[in-house]
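Quick note —
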Amino acid sequence: MIRGANSVRTAGRAVSARAARHIWGATQQLDTLAIPLEVDSPAPPFVGATPTKITVLSNGLKVASSDLVAPCTTVGVYVDSGSVNDTISGTSHLLQHMAFKSTEGMSTIAMVRGAEAIGATASATSARETIVYQMDTLKEHVPEALDMLAETILAPKFLPWELKEVAQAVSIELEEFSKLKQMLVQEMAHPAAFGGSSPLGKPLMCPPRNLSAITPEVLASYVSERLTPDKLVVTAAGYDHDQLVSHAKAIFGGLAPGKPMATPPSNYEGGEMRTSADEDLTHFALAFKGCGWKDEALVPFCVLNTLMGGGSSFSAGGPGKGMYTRLYQNILNQHGYVQEASVFNAFYKETGLFGIYGAAPPEAMGILVSAVCDEFKKLSAAITDEELSRAKNQLKSSLLMNLEQRQILFEDIGRQVVTYGERVPAEKLVAQIDAVKASELTSLAAKMLKSPPSIVAYGDTTSVPRYDVIAKQFA
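Predicted structure written out below.
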């Protein structure tokens, strides 16, 4: 019986070996020890994105791209304009929603059918300083995608009935946004910090009162003034640069250069916004003057952001979840009543915001505000080598992992070229992260805390200390 069992096992191994040879196409077995360990693997090396190439056309339009060994492309147009340029607040927001609607050459139905015919998806987003139109499609259909992008950017019709439908959709979007308290409070921090009449203090989303004030004529005026070649960057991730330049010249090369239009500066002032609302939790934010995209402190501020971290009181935990960041360790883990505590960092061309958001029951707001103030003050006191190393490694991995995604690469190329006129390679950013020192961060924090605080409270605000009481803690 035992011999029979051994025979069965032997036969089984023989069958397994034959199956393996069949599956993997093996013709002989190699003694792995006969291959020196220092010999490189026969597998090809990892092939990432090619270096970003940038071409400037005669009318000022920029073309920027990196190619990828992949069958699909993300292609689009970055616009150097946003809500900071709205004459009526909400114009750029409605313009975003009017993307890929009827144009002089295509109806909305034709636009949708055209995208579906090439297997493409289309989207548009607006921010304070940029508007982005983009499409994801197969490489061979990039020319058709660029044609549709040009139609929606350069020749929109802004039909009244389509604008009315969009206004209704935006009204629903605003209702949903009001439920996202963290985003709402961070939005409120901008007029508190920069003043409601400054470009950065203008609302990012269209206020309900302006939905009927933004007419087709208002949108058309914005397009003619702001969507000019000198403010456009045709961007692609996963496409040959020379071909992209050729297509861009054919489609956009004939456009006349735009007139220079300066955006008034947004000076950081500090201030307060309180909104009473019937909420179970009170939402609070404390922010100070940060830095702009072009500031030398950009990378150190990013390290500070990662070091502070934070999140929700409920987390599945586990490695890589930021459980050892300061806001988790010192606020969420120490005060069970705090539901949210997280850092936020907003960069703009010339300035920025660095703040902490928190949420807790109204009766606990005094303690939460005190804890948030303490965390800011600790930043200028001491930062250990361990937490600095951890923050730098987390920031580097986040940067590099994100850039492996085609859509993120597209965003990075477009945003950097709009801001700098060039793209800083990831390797240089990693080196800058590695070079950050603890003393640099404490000095940066001390300088930041000298700016007037910006405070936001939403919900039952009666227990939130007065502005002057909070400001005195940093005097």
